[in-house]
Amino acid sequence: MVFACLKDGKFHYSGMHQYILLYRGKKNIVEMIETKGIWLGLTDDITGLNENFEFEMESGDIFFLYTDGITEALDETGKMLGIDRLKDLFHAFSGHPLNDILTGILAEINNYETNDDITMLFVKKL
Question: What is the model's pTM?
């Protein structure tokens, strides 16, 4: 994924990855933004393959990027955590400071087996 942060909370992005989870503070909802574009490094020449997509953030909004090691974590029955559960966790902690969102999600993941990397990034517009 490639991001460009523009003025007034506008972001341009391109590249396939997991959904971008975007907490809308004023509405108290989490949107799932599908990522599109080409995977970086897939081909030497990306001419005609790259396209910019965008979203805009307002004060109090938070976007969340993560690796699939989180959504593919398995519980004791072999069921994956999945995107819907991650979205619910993010929403549940979104009214808290960013560090509390991180520790809350990590605490839940501790109940799962992970065989992949776990990386999270939160960006909040003040």
Answer: 0.89
The token pair that represents 21 in the structure block: 């989870």
Q: 120-124 and 53-56: which strand pairing? A: unpaired
Cβ-based burial of 113 (10 A; exposed 0-12, middle 13-18, buried ≥19):
exposed
- CB atoms < 10 A from the CB of 83, how many? 16
Per-residue tens of pLDDT for the chain, all 126 residues: 788 899 888 998 887 789 999 999 999 999 999 987 665 666 677 666 667 889 999 999 999 999 999 999 999 999 999 999 999 999 999 999 999 999 999 999 999 999 999 999 999 999
Sheet of 10-14: strand order equals 2-5, 10-14, 53-56
CB 111 within 8 A of CB 126: no
86 three-state secondary structure: helix
CA 49 to chain centre: 23
- 3 state DSSP class of 13: strand
Cβ partners under 8 Å of residue 47, min gap 6: none
